[in-house]
Amino acid sequence: MKKGILGVIIALVVIAGLLVMPLIGSYNNLVTLSENADQQWANVETVLQRRYDLIPNLVESVKGAMAQEQEVFGQIADARAAMAGASTVDEQVEASNQLEGALGRLLVVMENYPELRSNENVTRLMDELAGTENRISVERGRYNETVADYNRKIKRFPTVIIAGMMGFDERAYFEAADGAETAPKVDLTNP
């Protein structure tokens, strides 16, 4: 009789273990994917910070030759301030998009000033900024890939059940700002 009860207990423990192990594995996988998304967002923030740090140098290098373009500089300053004050991913995305638009307008203005393009400091800073923009683009793409993996995982059965019970929510993608498909226009005919 004791051997029979012991056998049943062992069988129940084995069955329970077989049922719990996949749950533990799914939970651990969700934690890993979530951490990967957080890490990739940190990479995006790193290159956004690099851009944020380069902008004052670029603006100061260009400012003297372009005093009449104060509106563009004001937009850059406002966007940079918004970036500094952003606390959530969505706010950072919005501020980054605002900054990209202002930088795009600055680049268009600069093309109309050949003496600026020949300035060594401006050229060097523009190259740095272009490199930074490329890094941002790459890191955003990687972030979106990581988020896609995470979002797919939390939506699939049976992981969707575990994700719901453990509070794993869908993450937002880094998307282009409205109007990003339209090139900025700068009118230099009005002083």
Average pLDDT for all residues: 79
The CATH superfamily label reads: LemA-like domain
- CATH T-level fold name: de novo design (two linked rop proteins)
- Global morphology: rod-shaped
Distance between the termini: 100 Å
Whole-number tally of structural domains? 1
Kindly report the oligomeric state of this protein.
single chain
What is the CATH first-level class name?
Mainly Alpha
Strand-pairing-aware structural class: mainly alpha
- Count of helix runs: 6
Q: Which range does the strand content fall in?
A: under 5%
Can you name the CATH architecture? Up-down Bundle
Radius of gyration: 26 Å
Largest sheet: none
Q: Indicate the low-confidence ranges by residue numbers.
A: 186-191
- DSSP strand tally: 0
Helix content: over 70%
SSE series: HHHHHH
Subcellular location: Membrane
Transmembrane segments: 5-24
Main location: membrane
Organism: Acetoanaerobium sticklandii (strain ATCC 12662 / DSM 519 / JCM 1433 / CCUG 9281 / NCIMB 10654 / HF) (Clostridium sticklandii)
